[in-house]
Amino acid sequence: MSSNSANMMKAIVISDFGPVENLVIRDVPLPVPAPGTARIKIRAFGINHAEMHMRRGEWAESVPISGIECVGTIDACPGGEFDPGTAVASIMGGLGRTTSGSYAQYTVAKVENIVALAQAGQEPALSWDQLAALPESYCTAWTCLFRNLALERGHTLLIREVISAFGRAALNLAVNAGAVVTATTRSEAKFADLKALGAADAVLEGPGLPGRLRESGKATKFDRVLELVGNSTLVESLTLIKRDGRLCLAGWLGGLDPIKDFNPLLQMASRVHF
What we know:
By secondary structure, this protein is α/β, with parallel strands linked by helices. It has helices at residues 49-56, 128-132, 135-148, 165-176, 191-196, 209-216, 234-238, 262-268; strands at residues 8-14, 23-29, 37-44, 69-76, 87-91, 106-110, 114-116, 156-160, 180-185, 201-204, 222-227, 241-249. It has 2 domains: 8-132, Medium-chain alcohol dehydrogenases, catalytic domain (Quinone Oxidoreductase, Chain A, domain 1, Alpha-Beta Complex), CATH 3.90.180; 136-271, NAD(P)-binding Rossmann-like Domain (Rossmann fold, 3-Layer(aba) Sandwich). Strands 6-3-4-5-7 form a 5-stranded antiparallel beta sheet. Strands 10-9-8-11-12 form a 5-stranded parallel beta sheet. Strands 1-2 form a two-stranded antiparallel ribbon. The radius of gyration is 21 Å and the shape is globular.
């Protein structure tokens, strides 16, 4: 991207809610950082399922310039928290939801939502495109595993549909923390990859998972369940939790249709944590 005016930049803008064709490149004013924020020259950004829902008008919060994460270099920082030229990553803090996000040449982010990746003037250890795949996936996975699920070494953990970037990040963090992970995926061809990443077992994802686990002699109850398929399998996943276990619903790879059989869900809710 390039822009002819020092006070303007190129951005990918949601022209109207709808299909991907509604994302258009436009000239927009260069954002001005205030104290407590910094302007980032964006080198790369990740693309998230949440942004897809924002583009369609299915999310509670969205702005015309989407993008909830990015990596790049500090262009301006009124408070001096970061030196210009510092390689950084930024995530959340309203990006793409209440303030213009990362689908642009520049964005302004809160300093508390910015992390330095290298000293000013130095290149980070990974390439920009590699770095762009990390912030949202790993931050969300960490929060789900260690805050929501309170995962500890030795816990048995089921991750339903692990092949997404988020799922792989969760698998990586959980294995590193000493959990015993069973990972599901819709493709048996991925089983070897998951086990190479540290999964203790890999199981085919799909309807009737509890029954198939019983028939195969595999574990049928887990200390923790990370549900990434979503509403369509949530009630089923509740039957796979040990007493006093925890489940975290953190993905909707199976779509956003309402939860079926909601009454059984309410009955089970008293013994699980969301």
